[in-house]
Structure formats: C-alpha cells, structure tokens
Amino acid sequence: MTSAHKQRTLGFAACALASSFWGCGFFFGKIALREMNVGAMVFYRFAFACVVLLPVLFTDRPRFNAREWRVLLIASFLGVPLQFLLQFYGLSLTTVSHASLMVGTMPVLLAVGAAIFAHERMDTIGWLALAASTIGAGLIAFGGEHHGAGQATLAGDLIVVVSLGIALGWILLNKQLMEKHSALAVTAYGLFAGTLMLAAIVPFFWGWPPVHLSAAAWGASAAAGVLCTATTTLLWNWGLTQVPASQAGILLNMEPLIGSLLGVFVLHELLGPSAWVGGGLILAAAVALTLHSKTTVGEAALGAAMQSTLE
C-alpha cells in the first residue's frame, strides 16, 4: 500500500469515526436530560468540548478583521445557543431514534442551501432526493406514536427539523470564514464564543446548571462534549485534509444510522413501519445526492455541516 493510499484510507476512517461519534450525541443527551434541563445539558456539553479545544486558541490564531468577527459571532449564536437549545428541546419531546433519523435530512438541506444562497444548481437527482427526504421526514413525524411519556411527538420531530434549518445558516456563514481561515480555528473560536453565549443565556432562562449529578449524567455530558463535539470536529477536519469532502460526505449517513440504532436497541424505543420506511427514504436520498447527483456543494460547506450536526 502506497503512502498516499494509506493516508487516504486513514482519512476515510477518521471521517467515519467522527460521523459515528456524532451519531451518539442524541443518545448521551437523552441520558443527561434525565437529571437536568435542556439548558444545563447543552452548556455542559460545550464546556467539556472547550476544555479539549483550549490548546487550539494558542496554536492556531486566526487574524479576523472587524467584519469577520461579526460574522463569527452571528454564526456562533446561530450554531451553538440557538440551534442546540432548540434541537435538544425537540429531543426532550421525542425519541432518540426519531430525532436521529430527522438529522438524515441535513445533506439534502445543505444542497438546497447551496443552490439558493451559493447559486449552485441542483440537477434532477438532487431535486428527487429533496422530495424523497421530505416525504421520509413526513412519514417519521406523522407516523410515530404521538402520545404517552417517552414517546415520539410531532412537535419534537418538527422542532429538530427547524433546528437543522438554523444550522444551515451557521454552515453558510462558516463557509465564508473558512475561505480565508483554517477550519480548525474557525471551529474552535466559534465554539468558544458560542459557549460564552450559553453561559449568559442558560442561567437567565433555565437557572444555574446543577452540580449534584450522578456519575451517569456527568459521564454522558463529558462524552457528548469530548467525543461528540471536540473529538469529532478534530477527526473530521483532519480527514478532510486527506480525502475530498464530496466523497467523505456519504459518511454523513453514519450519524442518523448510529443514533437510531442506539435508540432502538439500547433505549428500547419503538419505530413504527412508516418510520422505518421514512428513515430508509432519507438515507437513500442522502446516498443518491452524494454519489450520483451532479449538484456541487463546496468542500468548506460540507466540512462545516459536520460541525453543526450533533445530536
């Protein structure tokens, strides 16, 4: 095996591992939500991530101008407090498996956003993938058990989808910044800015985060921050230096797959027939869009997309 081929293989492995860890985000979040509110859970997740990413602030210092700092702060607000507080509020109203499958719409949302805002044209396969993904999300949302504690709810499913739309704004703003600055620096500084915003917002709306928690709650929070936020970002960014993002994009599908499997087999959640069909449509649409569509999505946008899909 040549050195270049080995690096390429390691690059795909890093992206696959990152996407798999991202797929655990909703699972760890659901465990933490048993003992804390949404605000506290999101704050602890990003606080743990910042501890891991702290060295980046000293080793990779970007030189943002005044306008770029404004863009970074707006992107951070959209991508961290607004997106994640809304997304995990949706999770608190639905199941891990439903929320994870909804995240499978992200590759298609990314392509639509690129077509609208970056003037990238979608071909026939791209539009068919969009239609299939939309139908799949509808089957999941409207086909779940919408009653009883611990069951999927229409409101929770739809809130998760809305949060993905907000994530798209974060992606497009990050794309602008990463045209001139490294993805690692934009990610680290953006996460730190977003965490500071969480520190100001969470106590006001949810009260001070609790500190008397079980080992399971602390472990889930640390895993969500270290594995599902910091480690995944570093793995994905390094992987994209070894392989084209357009090819690595297929690994986005690992996230909803892993998340839904954890919900069904570990948390013993139930998926109805329509949810299985809907999930299949979403994953098939993402595969078709990535492998067969000629719709082009910028590599920086794909890299940012993975930084904003957490579950």
Main attributes of the structure:
311 residues, mainly alpha, 0% strand, disordered C terminus
How are the secondary structure elements laid out?
Blueprint: H1 3-22, H2 25-32, H3 38-53, H4 56-59, H5 66-93, H6 96-103, H7 106-117, H8 124-143, H9 154-178, H10 183-206, H11 215-240, H12 245-248, H13 254-265, H14 273-291, H15 299-307
Helix pairs in contact: 1-11, 1-13, 2-11, 3-10, 3-11, 5-9, 5-10, 6-9, 6-13, 7-8, 7-9, 7-14, 8-14, 9-15
SSE topology string: HHHHHHHHHHHHHHH
Basic shape: globular
Instruction: Supply Rg.
Output: 18 Å
Helix content: over 70%
Low-confidence parts: 297-311
Individual helix count: 15
* Tally of DSSP β-strands: 0
- Terminal-residue CA separation: 36 Å
Beta-strand fraction estimate: under 5%
Number of domains: 1
Report the mean per-residue pLDDT as an integer. Answer: 77
Structural class, from secondary structure content?
mainly alpha
Task: Please give the largest β-sheet.
Answer: none
Write a compact overview of the structure shown.
The chain has 311 residues and is an all-alpha fold. It has 15 helices and no strands.
Can you characterise this structure?
The protein is mostly helical and 311 residues long. It is 76% helix and 0% strand. The protein contains 15 helices and no strands. The chain is globular. The relative contact order is 0.24.
